[in-house]
Structures are given as C-alpha cells and as structure tokens.
TrEMBL record:
<keyword id="KW-0813">Transport</keyword>
<dbReference type="InterPro" id="IPR029705">
    <property type="entry name" value="VPS35L"/>
</dbReference>
<dbReference type="GO" id="GO:0005768">
    <property type="term" value="C:endosome"/>
</dbReference>
<keyword id="KW-0653">Protein transport</keyword>
<dbReference type="GO" id="GO:0032456">
    <property type="term" value="P:endocytic recycling"/>
</dbReference>
<protein>
    <submittedName>
        <fullName>ESOPHAGEAL CANCER ASSOCIATED PROTEIN</fullName>
    </submittedName>
</protein>
<comment type="similarity">
    <text>Belongs to the VPS35L family.</text>
</comment>
<keyword id="KW-0967">Endosome</keyword>
<dbReference type="GO" id="GO:0015031">
    <property type="term" value="P:protein transport"/>
</dbReference>
Length: 453
C-alpha cells in the first residue's frame, strides 16, 4: 500500500483516516490487517501526541462502528495493542463505545471477554475527574459500567460470579448506581442457588452477607430501603430467619433517617416509599413472630414512623394505616394465604395456634391503628381528596374486620365524611355503600340505606 511510505505516525494516521471508510465498506481485509500493523509499528514504544490521538480515535471509531459484534473487532491483530497506547478523552470515548456495543448484544459468558471489559471499565472509571466534571458529563460512562456488570453471567460458576461482584465493588466503589446493581446481582445468584437445592446454602449465606455489607454505602434512602427489603425476602426464602430479621430492622432504621428537604421531590419519593412500605407489610405476613421481642414489633415500628414523619403526605399516612390493618387481619387468620418458599420456616398460624396472647396482641394493635386512622381522617380539612381517603379507609375496614355494630358505626362515620366532601351521587361513594351492604344483615342494610338518604 502507498500509505506505507509515511514513516511518521501523524502522517500515516491522517492518510489512513481518510481511506478507512473505503477499506471497511469494500471489505478489504488484507488492507485492514496491513493498516493496523502499520499503526502498531509506528505507535508502540513512543509518546502519542494530541493530534495523533484524535486521528487514532477517528480510525477506531470507524472500525467499531463497522462491526456489530465486538468479538470480530477483538479478533483483529494489533487492535488491543493500539488501544493500549491511547489515553485521556479519546481513550475514554473508545472505551464507552466498546461498552455500549457489548451491552446491547445480550449476556456475557466468555471469561476472557469479561476480563477485558472489566479492564476497559477500570480504565474508563479511572479517567473520570469527579471533581471537575459536571454530573451529566460522567453519568453516561457510569451507566455503561453498571450495565456491563449487570450483563455478566458466569452460568453454573456461581462462586466465580460472586467473586467478580466483590472485585467490582472494590474497583468501582464510587459509583452509587453500581452498588444497586451489585446487590440485585448478588440476590439473583442466591435465588439461582436456592433453586438448585440445599447443597448451596453456604453460598446463599455468602450472597446475603455481600448484600448486607454493600447496602449501607448506597446514598439514596429510598433505594437503600428497597434493597434491604429485597435482600430480607431472599434471606427468608433461604430459611435464614435471623439474617432476614436483621435486614428488616435495618430497613426500618433507614426509614427513620429518611427525610425530604426538596419539596419538588416529595411526590416522587413519597409515592415510591409508600409502595415500598406496603411491600414490607406483605413480606411480614411470612415472618415468624418472636414472642420475646413482641409479635407485632415490626407493625408497631411502622406505626411509630407514620406518626413521627412530617414528609409523609396525608394520603400516604392513611394508606399505611390501612396497610397495617390488612397485615394484622391477615395474621389473625387460622391459615395464612402464603408461606416462605422453604417448608422448614413455620408460619405464625402454626407457631401460635390456639395461643390467646397472640390474638390479644394483634387485636390490641388493630384497635390502636384504627383509632389513629379515624382520628387522622377527622382532622383533615373537608376537601374532595379528604372524602376519597375516607372511603378508602372505609373499604379497608369493611374488608379487614367482621362487620358488627362497632365496625358499622366507624364505617358510617367515614361514609358520611365521604358524602360531605364528594356529594351523595359520587360513584366511589355509591360503590363503597354497595360493598358495605353486602357484608351486613338485611336489617342493617336498610339502616345504612336510610342513613345515606
């Protein structure tokens, strides 16, 4: 090739860059091999200047854009040698393009490719100046690194996969988003091991321990809370009750530290937190109670949070009151609706079968929550949203308790609030009355209908 006459790297790169598209489009593989060999010969063992880096970046970008499979690029002679001589922003741009390519093509199984991409990710991470760059400038490379870690799959070599996660935590500890990915991946490994039977129980404990160590370093409290609940559920599925108990304690402690200082974030974070706490209530159905610490200690902790946190919106508080009521109603059943995956964990329906103190503790807390709920609703100003919340509470109470005279009086009070705020013709009001009627004897149905008229 005529380009071979240029001995200086800068001249050689300018000519190659000009003809690179033609070489690639016409599949001139022999010429491509000669070009890469020429670049390697002229660039290795010498200092690369900025103008040469720009030309190299342009050439490698064209090369990467031409191929759809990264393995085809890696198979080219001298590609990795050329990549190694690059530095600064041009190197980071090439690294990001490589990670972008590979994370679009499915899971990564090849060990040598995983190791190479780990080193590329390290180079990209080390090249980020967190002090001088704006947040949006380094978010893309951090997302690509997190995506790479998420796409790694060692198959049956689960121990090796966990060691990879440990290595990533050490190498990329400053990436907050990655910590969430690491915990998800570790929990997925634990579930995968559980499906394979008890022979991997020690490995499951290692996965849970990895998550327990990683979660506290996550900055966002909402994310941290969700990861605690997720890991607690995985631990419970593995029969690790003490681990699960400690994770729920940590989750509630995380809530106690949670606060909102930016009003623009309130609706987003409060809405997400509501869903997360409701999920916790669902998890607690499977949780075996501990008489020494109080059977209802976790519902009690949630109740204390509702009454002490100013960032909780009125709707959020009412829904959480309802969530606790439904949890307690479920725990009072003779047979629980669902159980942990592992049969050796006994549910509260069997643990406290026929124990009057168990039912007394649930009844006492149910009465306390109900009083809190009614008192809170009565304090709210009479607006349409207030009426809707009153009807939500009424539906919850009617579904959770046997509708006796005392329950009916509470429901009637809530329906009256709904009528005053929404009007007698409101469809939600009418459907609530219909549902309540279905739970009542005939004489009381007439009373309810007469009262609303």
């Amino acid at each position: 090739m005529a380009v071979a006459q240029y001995d200086r790297l800068d001249q050689y790169l300018r000519v190659v860059d000009a003809y690179m598209d033609i070489v690639l489009q016409n599949q001139m593989d022999n010429h491509l091999k000669t070009i890469l060999e020429g670049i390697s010969k002229r660039s290795c063992h010498k200092e690369i200047h900025e103008d040469e880096l720009e030309s190299l970046e342009s050439i490698l970008m064209k090369l990467l854009s031409h191929f759809t499979d990264l393995n085809d690029v890696l198979a080219l002679d001298h590609f990795l040698e050329i990549l190694d001589v690059m530095y600064g922003n041009p190197r980071s741009n090439i690294n990001m393009h490589i990670l972008s390519m590979v994370t679009r093509t499915g899971y990564l199984h090849d060990l040598s490719t995983i190791q190479l991409l780990f080193e590329i990710s390290q180079s990209l991470h080390d090249g980020i100046d967190f002090g001088s760059m704006k947040d949006d400038e380094y978010q893309q490379p951090l997302r690509l690194i997190s995506r790479f870690v998420e796409m790694v799959d060692y198959g049956t070599e689960m121990e090796q996969h966990l060691m990879f996660l440990v290595e990533c935590r050490g190498a990329f500890g400053s990436i907050n988003e990655l910590k969430e990915t690491l915990v998800h991946s570790s929990n997925c490994l634990a579930i995968k091991a559980l499906k394979d039977g008890r022979k991997h129980l020690t490995f499951v404990k290692s996965c849970i321990a990895f998550s327990e160590v990683t979660i506290p370093s996550v900055l966002e409290h909402v994310v941290q809370f969700n990861l605690y609940i997720e890991t607690a559920e995985v631990a419970l599925l593995g029969g690790l009750v003490s681990h699960s108990d400690g994770l729920v304690v940590s989750a509630i402690s995380c809530l106690e530290c949670f606060d909102l200082t930016d009003g623009s974030r309130t609706s987003i974070d409060a809405g997400g937190m509501l869903s997360s706490i409701q999920k916790l209530c669902s998890l607690l159905v499977m949780f075996p109670g501990n008489p020494d610490e109080g059977i209802t200690r976790f519902p009690n902790s949630i109740l204390s949070l509702i009454n002490s946190k100013s960032w909780m919106t009125p709707r959020m508080k009412i829904r959480l009151f309802c969530g606790i009521i439904l949890l307690l109603a479920t725990l009072s059943q003779n047979k629980l609706p669902y159980y942990p995956y592992r049969a050796e964990i006994t549910g509260n329906d069997l643990l406290f079968f026929g124990d009057p103190s168990y039912m007394h503790e649930i009844a006492a807390l149910s009465e306390c929550v109900l009083q809190n709920l009614i008192s809170f609703i009565e304090q709210e100003p009479p607006k349409a949203a207030h009426g809707t919340m009153a009807l939500e509470a009424c539906n919850c109470i009617a579904s959770a308790f046997v509708v006796c005279q005392d329950t009916l009086e509470v429901c009637w009070k809530l329906i009256e609030i709904g009528r005053l705020c929404l009007g007698a013709d409101d469809r939600y009001l009418q459907s609530t009355i219909k549902y309540l009627n279905e739970q009542l004897p005939t004489s009381e149905k007439a009373f309810l209908a007469l009262g609303i008229e």
